[in-house]
Amino acid sequence: MLPVVDKPAIQYVVEEAVDAGLSDVLMITGRSKRSIEDHFDRAYELEEALNAKGDSERLAAIRESADLATMHYVRQGEPRGLGHAVHCARQHVGDEPFAVLLGDDMIDARDKLLHRMIEVRGQYGGSVVALMEVEPDQVSAYGCAAIEATGEDDVVRISDLVEKPAPEEAPSNWIIIGRYVCDPAVFDVLEKTPPGRGGEIQLTDALRTLADMPSENGGGVYGVKFRGRRYDTGNKLEYLRTVVQFAAERPDLAPEFIPWLREFVQAHDAADGVGGPGDA
């Protein structure tokens, strides 16, 4: 629910799903997460007050979140890992393929990653994960994939997955980011997946099993190489960068925000003795 300019990060994620054609959204939440449900619900008292004032602009903004999609909610009783959270969706999803979008991982709206992943699922079947290339010293913070080429530059077949490997043990520099399109076969696998790293049920471990299963049983895992813009709002520094970048690209804010930001940086540098005479 951390705001990115004037919307919580989770709303950008839901908007991404809707833009990709997914109108039925299930949120896996936990204790003290009621604010998420309230945000995507109607606020009738506030709407009536804004309507009475004739404030149509803010009224439309308030209604936007409630009108995005059909929203459902399931509580994860205890934090037992991403794999367990996904398994909590089984009754709602049934036997249909589905997408998983992590709430602190934002993809720029101009980069149609989820569109492409759904397209790859339709072409190859199985499950599809989003991959990004990182420096070797960063792989230990993520799930990492062993990949095999296909006939398409941005699509690979995944032969193995390792959750947060040591850099010297990583099968590649391609990490899994917070977008998945899963075959419903993943539910049966998750049911039998024991707790892994950190004592949690890892979705990575279940996908690793699926990678070795035949396609007729829902097996096979593919990766889409993503080279676009991603924002990690779960990291303090990246969150601040995201807010600044989004504000700098907003046509209603940029004309005033960018000059202020420039002056702020110059004043900050001057106070630190940076940028004085003789500096290039």
What order do the helices and strands come in, and which of them pair?
Blueprint: E1 3-4, E2 7-8, H1 9-19, E3 24-29, H2 34-39, H3 44-53, H4 56-67, E4 70-75, H5 82-87, H6 90-93, E5 98-101, E6 105-107, H7 113-124, E7 127-133, E8 143-149, E9 155-163, E10 174-182, H8 185-192, H9 203-211, E11 221-225, E12 230-232, H10 236-248, H11 254-271
Parallel strand pairs: 3-4, 7-11
Antiparallel strand pairs: 1-2, 5-10, 6-12, 7-10, 8-9, 9-11
Helix pairs in contact: 3-4, 8-9
Basic shape: globular
| CATH class assignment of the largest domain | Alpha Beta
Q: In percent, how much strand structure appears in the residues?
A: 15-25%
Q: How do the strands line up in the largest sheet?
A: 5-10-7-11-9-8
The number of distinct structural domains comes to 3
Helix content: 25-40%
* Uncertain parts: none
Major sheet details? 6 strands, mixed
Helical run tally: 11
Q: Could you state the order of secondary-structure elements as H and E?
A: EEHEHHHEHHEEHEEEEHHEEHH
Structural class per helix/strand content? alpha+beta
**Rg over C-alpha atoms, rounded to the nearest angstrom:** 21 Å
- Classify the fold: give the CATH topology of the largest domain: Spore Coat Polysaccharide Biosynthesis Protein SpsA, Chain A
Q: What's the total count of β strands?
A: 12
Distance between the termini: 42 Å
CATH hierarchy: architecture of the largest domain: Alpha-Beta Complex
CATH superfamily of the largest domain: Spore Coat Polysaccharide Biosynthesis Protein SpsA, Chain A
Average predicted confidence as pLDDT:
90
EC number: 2.7.7.9
Keywords: Nucleotidyltransferase, Transferase
Pfam families: NTP_transferase
Organism: Actinomadura napierensis
